[in-house]
């Protein structure tokens, strides 16, 4: 797919495996870009499923994310499915839930810190006990997904703000910008510390969070 639309990539099209998105900064520009797409499909003998095609829209679901002029959002239908999941009864259920939640990782601040009681159940030779310590983060992650913020695109003419923090077993970062008195998030990121890093002094963990933040963004 990338080879077919190589001359359109990034300037007027984005491709992910067998899905693609044609875009433009105005209706007329988008229409011009869209006219080129079926020509190249025909030349490459690519057949489109018209039931899955959407034309000239201002927002839509792309790779389980809602994309619009406002920014990037979670897919509410997918989130509703996740929030209806019952508490896990075994390790497999924990993996399934965390897998769903991690797909929207960039929307959840302090994911590693919140999910720690659940991820501990995945460690080798750990007795499975989904107790109150696990129920709390389980419900907390659901709540955060239900009220996930809209991630805005960066305005390169304005200052960026990078906030970072560290706990005993994770580091996290938040990139965003100020719009008046409001802070608009662009991306959340976090990382679980390994055994050696968990033994660092507090100051070293904080510095590790700074290094992680700059590496990430």
Distinctive features:
alpha+beta; Ubiquitin-like (UB roll); three-stranded antiparallel sheet; 7 helices; 8 strands; globular
- Provide the low-confidence segments as ranges: none
Strand percentage lies at: 15-25%
What is the CATH third-level topology name of the largest domain?
A: Alpha-Beta Plaits
- Measured as a percent range, the helix fraction is 25-40%
Shape: globular
* Through-space gap between termini: 29 Å
Mean pLDDT: 90
The strand count comes to: 8
- CATH C-level class of the largest domain is Alpha Beta
Largest sheet: number of strands, sense, barrel closure: 3 strands, antiparallel
Oligomerization state: single chain
Q: Gyration radius, to the nearest Å?
A: 21 Å
Structural class: alpha+beta
How large is the count of helical segments?
7
- In spatial order, strands of the major sheet run 3-4-5
The total number of structural domains is 3
The CATH architecture of the largest domain: 2-Layer Sandwich
Element order: H for helix, E for strand: EEHEEEHHHHEEEHH
Would you give an account of this structure?
By secondary structure, the chain is an alpha+beta fold. It contains 7 helices and 8 strands. The strands form 3 sheets. Strands 3-4-5 form a 3-stranded antiparallel beta sheet. It has a 3-stranded antiparallel beta sheet with strand order 6-7-8. Strands 1-2 form a two-stranded antiparallel ribbon. A hairpin with a 2-residue loop joins strand 7 and strand 8 (182-192). The longest helix has 17 residues, at 27-43. The mean pLDDT is 90.
